[in-house]
Amino acid sequence: MKRTFDYHPPTICYDKPAMAVVPRDEYESRRIQALAGTRVLQLIVPKRSARTWTMQAGDVCRVSLPEGSQVGDLNLWNLEHPRQERFYSGKTRQIHSTHLKTYDRLWSCVPYLRPMATFVRDSLEDYGIDRDGGSLHDVVGTRCDDYIYKLITGQDRFGSCHSYLTEAVKEHGLGEEDVHDTWNIFMCTGFTRDTQQYFCKPSPARKGDCIEFLAEMNLLVALSACPQGDVSIQVGQKVPDEKCFPLLVEVFRAN
Ligand SMILES: [Zn+2]
């Protein structure tokens, strides 16, 4: 006979720590001050590659789509001690949710466990949560890598967010072991209701869309323009070059 269980309604696991609640008005004015200040950095992450940059605490970074729909995989490290403190995707997910919304924060690993950055603007926030439970900017997916590509297709490849990020961090004395689970910006993902499998949808992001985050500490940031483009093609299938686009990065600092 099949075993039966008592029903209990779901309870949110984590009582939100005070540091996870952002004073929105204060952050909006800090954001506006930074944007009205000086643009201290502008760079393009070319399609199918990754780039790094640094930020000072209080800087606002905007990542936008200058040409077309494209997802990005983002890593963060404490600039002063990157080997010890970096972004902790799993705990960020537990504190906030599977998909980050504005005024959610990106938390660092233990023993630090503190905000590294705060998400302050999302031009796609109206997307919300769709009828399949899909939403944007997840902290669920790990990053695409050539090892899983080989498991799926049997073929060797160099060309994944993991390998691009690994290449990009070399100039900072970091290596493959420093690349970690990413914040998947502009990506639309969820879990199927019937089998709880990770799914993706074509990103609804278009040319001109952007996200912005405010640095809570001095940061080293790495961003990959995913070779899956807008992720409208399943991992393992060939993605045509014209499906892939660059990402534009700008950093603003209050005067
Ligand atoms: Zn990728």
Structural class: alpha+beta
Work out the count of structural domains. 1
Mean pLDDT: 96
Roughly how many Å apart are the termini?
Answer: 71 Å
| Small-molecule components bound | zinc ion
Number of DSSP helical runs: 4
InterPro entries: DUF1989
Protein name: DUF1989 domain-containing protein
Domain DUF1989: 44-220
Pfam family, one: DUF1989
How would you sum up this structure, described in words?
InterPro entries: DUF1989 (IPR018959). This is DUF1989 domain-containing protein. Residues 44-220 form the DUF1989 domain. It is built from four helices and twelve strands; from the N terminus they run αββββαβββααβββββ. The model has no long low-confidence stretch (mean pLDDT 96). Helices cover 15% and strands 29% of the residues. The protein is α+β, with helices and mostly antiparallel strands and 255 residues long. The protein has one domain. The structure holds zinc ion. Zinc ion binds next to loops.
